Amino acid sequence: MTTPLEAKVALVTGGSRGIGAAIAARLAADGATVAFSYARAADVAADLGKTLQARGLRAQAFQADQADPASCTRLVNEVVTTFGPLDILVNSAGVYQTGAIDDPERDDAVFAEQLQTNVVGVVATTRAAVLNFNDGGRIVSIGTTGAAQAPFPGLGDYVATKAALAAYTRAWSRDLGPRRITVNIVAPGAVNTDMNPADGPNGDFQKSLNSLNRFADPSEVAALVAFLTGPEAGFITGTTVNIDGGLSA
């Protein structure tokens, strides 16, 4: 079995379900020791850890609230204490909430949570991580194609958080380039997860927006992340890589 990430230590935030879980499983299968975080679903995270460990893979769950910068810093410190300095950080934790700018019923608390998790938490986690990062490491954040185009109404708050993350990514690539640490974004289109199932009420509409008329499987997103965190992606940095079935064509 090919293990391109052998001896690497990876942290995947929001790694207990959906895209994050697929990424955690793929990086572990590629040889990395994987720490993955969860916010509330301890049982789900524990099950994933047991499943991966039963396959002989090195993986462990850690609790963290990605909306709380102090919790993000504590997460990184716990992982480093357990496994040693990081080689890979995947910022997968995120909140997705929609709402039009002129909606009189909008909940400002929802906006604040989305901003805290998708931007403030990512910044806090990355800042803590790079202080404990091996040179030549990899940082990948999960974005969205909506950061460049909004295909339907009500996406403003969400896509703005991801656009901010794309700007940070470009800047961080400059900051960390001298250490040969690459920083990139993977931007999925529709992905079949429990939060956005392909057979859900908006599934057919979302399929119709891309060239392949289907949802991605989380494993397809994980495969792209695995490439960007691997040894052959050392000259890719400061960019966004779409995986959207042609949505942005």
From TrEMBL:
The keyword Coiled coil does not apply. The keyword Repeat does not apply. InterPro entries: KR_dom, NAD(P)-bd_dom_sf, SDR_fam. Residues 8-194 form the Ketoreductase domain. Pfam families: adh_short_C2 (PF13561). Keywords: Oxidoreductase. One of its GO terms (molecular function) is oxidoreductase activity. Belongs to the short-chain dehydrogenases/reductases (SDR) family. This is Oxidoreductase. It comes from Mycolicibacterium arabiense.
